What does this fold into?
Amino acid sequence: MSQPRVLVTGASGLLGSNLALQAVARYSVVGITHQHPLADPGFETLQADLLAPGAVARVLDETQPDWVIHCAALADIDACEQQPELARQLNTELPGELAREAASRDLRFAHISTDAVFDGSHGPYKETDGPNPRSVYAKTKRMAELAVKAAHPQWLILRPNLFGWSPSGTHSLAEFFYNKLSNGQAVNGFTDRLFSPLHVGFLSEIILELLDKGEHGIYNAGSRDSLSKYDFGMAIARQFGFNEQLVHPTDAEAAAPRSADLRLNVSRLSQTLGRRLPSAAEGVARLYDELHNGHRQKLQAMAAASPA
It folds into this structure.
């Protein structure tokens, strides 16, 4: 039996690019991009505006995938506050349409949601805890979960907090700390923001494994442990040999409402996979390895086709 053909939306983003590179080692992959085409990524790409009328059906018919992994989103929280209608179209309507079209073709479908669907008042959160999104971003992502559940009988939804290298070099908290600290710049680390960050490579492996096993349902996808964003910045500084004094502990101030305690209980995912999930420190160590094994450079080279 031939290996599944995998369609990845948002292939120029943090998760989409890493996931496509991970998948192409085992599967036939086509990555969908929109405003940021990729240069020689090592997998098939197609540039398309999935919000255009009929575009989703056309792309699925043209690419003929077996699995659809929806990573594309408007993930900038402040941009969502400023452009709520665009956020609704990209983050709610599009995943619902993708799920419907995938279901009509009997394709497996995975939707990437966010830990931000929780309000941050009492982590660690289980999948059974009631969402209470605070920001426009989080609200549109929660509505997408409901749309996907209604549209696809075998839906798979993951709620991650992820970090890693991206083609743009600016898409994750890890890159923010790395970019600042590597230039000797001071950076604030929030002591009152708790989370369970999972390296994007580990998340990519998990998504593919769940699809391969035919799993469906909803899963929290984070590291097995939790820490503050200040402690995460300190972990980056230590791992890369930067000056730890440049990471300043501070309380968070943000234009858009953000949840304070987004620790995740990942026992359900761990049980399904039959193993412990990686720790945040293991993710930071993998980030360091990827700086030296060519992975980061590969991602940056992929972005060369993107307009300035």
